[in-house]
Amino acid sequence: MRMTAGYGRRGLIMAGLTALIMALGACTQHAADEHVRGGVQASVHDLDRHITSYVSAPKPRRVVDFETREPPGSIVVSNSERALYLVLEEDKAYRYGVGVGRQGFSWTGRNRVSMKREWPDWRPPAAMRRRQPDLPVHMPGGPANPLGARALYIGSTLYRIHGSNEPHTIGQAVSSGCIRMTNADVRHLYDRVRVGARVVVRN
């Protein structure tokens, strides 16, 4: 009887431990699921909060006098000045320092912002991969991604106005045609530009 009673007590203890482990396991799984779901929703916020490349451009953004026929909300890029202007009311504009296309890759023209993305993925065009075979076919968004914290896509072209994980290149002609900004500046621009806004790139 004692052995049966002892076995019964051990059985109860084991059953209790098993139930506790299962309960903890269920809580842990639920918490993990919540964390995963929350992580997806909060990933942009977390990346923005922890990014280390939010540094000032060689010429920090500022409001300047800027006469243009383009309506407020338009973007005007000057390749020669290495500057991007966001047109404001009353002949004013935000002026940002940017990096532009290197020799043979710079361009001019008019288009519109067709899409906006936070921490965008990067898929190098086939022509770029032929020039640089070590490039990946796809790179997910994040601090190591060359497109940086934000991207504004220009029409149906391959060009973008985007952030950069190489802020030291701002003010230079180094890209394959895209317009580079510091991550801090591209966030500032992104929040003020709507899809459909005009984009004018000039010499």
Automatic annotation (TrEMBL):
Residues 73-202 form the L,D-TPase catalytic domain. Coiled coil: none annotated. PROSITE patterns: LD_TPASE (PS52029), PROKAR_LIPOPROTEIN (PS51257). The keyword Transferase applies. Keywords: Cell shape, Cell wall biogenesis/degradation, Glycosyltransferase, Hydrolase, Peptidoglycan synthesis, Signal, Transferase. Residues 1-31 form the signal peptide. Pfam families: YkuD. One of its GO terms (cellular component) is extracellular region. The keyword Cell wall biogenesis/degradation applies. Transmembrane segments: none annotated. One of its GO terms (biological process) is regulation of cell shape. One of its GO terms (molecular function) is glycosyltransferase activity. The active site is at H162, C178. Pathway: Cell wall biogenesis; peptidoglycan biosynthesis. Belongs to the YkuD family. This is L,D-transpeptidase catalytic domain. The lineage of its organism: Bacteria, Pseudomonadati, Pseudomonadota, Alphaproteobacteria, Hyphomicrobiales.
